[in-house]
Amino acid sequence: MLTISTDLPEVIKKRRGVHGLKAMMLSDRDLTVTDAFGLRNQLTHSGPTGDGEAEALPVPTTMLVDANGKVLWIEHADSYQWRSGPEVVLSAIQSHLDST
Prior knowledge:
Distance between the termini: 19 Å
Strand order of the largest sheet: 1-2
Structural class: alpha+beta
Number of helices: 3
Shape: globular
Strand content: 15-25%
Largest sheet: 2 strands, parallel
């Protein structure tokens, strides 16, 4: 499991344990990964802000990607505060693992 955030690496390191997440956490400060998947949020916080904030935010997204980089399953959130629940992600994993 891998998470990608627009937070600074030092912020990720400092806050990593707050939610008990044990996944690898990476910073996408310049939105390279966000833009590669077309996930830049065009509606909220999509321009330069100053004060060290990221230039934009991604659309909250959960993906299942195979070893070759092929997206097998994807779910986008309508709200920046929402994320896919563990049961939804587990179901997607089971569905795709069962079909291979």
